[in-house]
Amino acid sequence: MKTPAHERIAIPIGKSSNGIAEEVDLTTMPHLFLSFSEEDQLYHYLEYLLHSWNQITDFTCQLATALSLESYNALQKHFSRPKPFYSWIRNNPEMGTIGSKPAFIQAIFKELKKRQKKTESSINANYEFQPLIVIIDDLLEMLVNKRKTTGLRFLQLLIEGPAVRIHFITASGRSFRNLLNQLINMNPVTKEQLQQQLPNINLTYHLPLGAELILTPEDLFFFKARNQSDFQRLYTLATTTPNPC
Question: Is the pTM of this model over 0.85?
């Protein structure tokens, strides 16, 4: 079923050779995994993304962020609309609304269960949820946790979240891209563990978990859609925020 225009979540993926900005719909990905070489690249990209959303008058979503203090400071001026209602700042947690990494994942997980319960009701079967977009600037740091359940719940969110309009935009350094690919395609051990937790879901159907965007120091972007094998080569977006549409 085609997503209505007002439900589309536009994600910039770079510019074509003739300078035209290319966009894709996050709801079709259904998650975006970013790889970057330098932190400034990530800040500039996320600034561009948030600013572009703020220029769309009829675009509404809920936002949750797990960021470093540096990322938060770089992006906070763009949080006027949408404003995060869950936020964890990992090296200064008292500035956020949530004080720890497990608590952040738990908060999103509770939202997942609340939405799923609502859809199970015949009265609310066709309820249209407002999108919840979760932005994480260090995916691998988020996954490293003594609590095994935190990692498995995160994977469950990636699998089950899109059905109730929960989508992730996550980032990691390019040096960890092999590990990122293991996550996107889920290595056999992790897949088996998660299958035990979700016995009624065909995990293979949901793999890979999302699209990939690589930000290179050569001002090139490489985008690969979820079910494609080749990357599309594009050029970097402006390092300053775009002009209002």
Answer: yes
